[in-house]
Amino acid sequence: MGVGDAHAVKRLGIPARQSRARPQSRVREISWAEFGGIARELAEAVGRRYRPDVVLGVVNGGVFVGGALAGSLGAEFLPAKIEKRSRIAGERLPSLKGKRVLAVDDVSVTGQTLGKATALALQAGAVEVRTAALVVRPKGNRTDFHAIETDEVVVFGWDYQLDGGGGAGPGDPGEVGV
Known about the structure:
Elements: H1 6-12, H2 16-20, H3 23-26, E1 27-30, H4 32-49, E2 54-58, H5 61-73, E3 76-80, E4 100-108, H6 112-123, E5 128-136, E6 145-149, E7 153-156
Parallel strand pairs: 1-7, 2-3, 2-4, 4-5, 5-6
Helix pairs in contact: 4-5
């Protein structure tokens, strides 16, 4: 496939024609090391304009981003599972009464997931909610904070299958060649 693996292609919804045709021109891989630098820069940008008490990381990719941002911003971290096909926001959160919240995802396209995360935080009593994503699309949803704006399909370290299921190869990419 060139980059990623079958798990990443499926999770990201990459059309079959795109995953086979010249992936290097339309797909950008962000290594764990590169992610660390990008997350630090995003945290600095957020910290200059907003001081959240809580970072709400949308499961799955937003958990990695949210955890990194929360540590840098000195904020509490909470994961939130958002049901994309449901009209309800998802699970209930513990009380966020009087708290400022930063809802975070790895990629924002339409803004629906972050919109549901925002609604969930407000239902839990947050006084203010802002949004952040590592990646936004040029013609897509505009988060309050983002690090990268691109039409490329971005593949992160967490997009690789780590459980070894499905016969996609070794379970942990770090074990290759050991």
